[in-house]
Write a structure and sequence with these properties.
About 30% of the residues lie in helices and about 25% in strands. By secondary structure, the chain is an alpha+beta fold. The protein folds into two domains: about 100 residues, Glycoprotein, Type 4 Pilin; about 70 residues, Hypothetical protein ph0010, domain 2 (Dna Ligase, domain 1, 2-Layer Sandwich). β1 and β2 form a beta hairpin. The protein is globular and about 55 Å long.
């Protein structure tokens, strides 16, 4: 669990990183000169979600903690704002309307299941994020997606489609399913 001060700092860094990039500056270089809390140097995996008028405007993240938390927030705030292929790049005039949410991911755990009915019993809506892999196909949904896709069936239909698989793939096949939880925090 992160302290509220660290959460606020990470949200501030994500916002400043997007604005600095728009202004042609490199926040990473500026931050090198500052003394930041040690926890930011611990490995962490985050998703950065941008919304505008409560609608998704960008969402990119890491599924594994392979670099310091600070670097993951910097990389994923940049990628959510400028590299999410579903959206145009964020422009300066939009920033006043953009809200930032950060989801800090736990380690993933593989679910051992036999049938879809069995899988349903082991997946907790609004608690578990789900990572599906099959052959060269993969996709994930954060736990927040359960707010929109409330049934297991609907959730897995959309997750399979996101992975480039048939909508009913999970009902008749046995992809690898891993779950994780998140600690999420957002700008007010």
């Amino acid at each position: 669990m992160l302290h509220d001060q660290i959460k606020s700092l990470l949200l501030s860094i994500a916002r400043k990183n997007i604005v600095a990039t728009i202004d042609g500056k490199n926040l990473r270089e500026i931050l090198k000169e500052q003394r930041l809390p040690e926890v930011l140097q611990e490995r962490g995996a985050v998703f950065v979600t941008l919304t505008k008028d409560r609608l998704l405007r960008g969402c990119v993240g890491s599924l594994e903690a392979y670099q310091p938390l600070l670097d993951d927030v910097l990389d994923n705030s940049f990628n959510a704002a400028f590299k999410d292929s579903r959206f145009a790049k964020i422009v300066k005039g939009e920033m006043k309307d953009i809200k930032i949410e950060i989801s800090l991911l736990s380690n993933r755990q593989e679910i051992d299941y036999y049938t879809f009915a069995d899988l349903k019993k082991k997946i907790k809506p609004k608690v578990h994020g789900v990572y599906l892999t099959y052959d060269r196909h993969s996709a994930t949904f954060l736990p927040q997606v359960w707010d929109e896709l409330v049934s297991h069936e609907t959730f897995f239909v959309h997750l399979a489609q996101k992975a480039g698989l048939a909508p009913d793939f999970v009902f008749h096949n046995h992809p690898k399913i891993e779950v994780y939880t998140v600690e999420k925090f957002k700008e007010e």
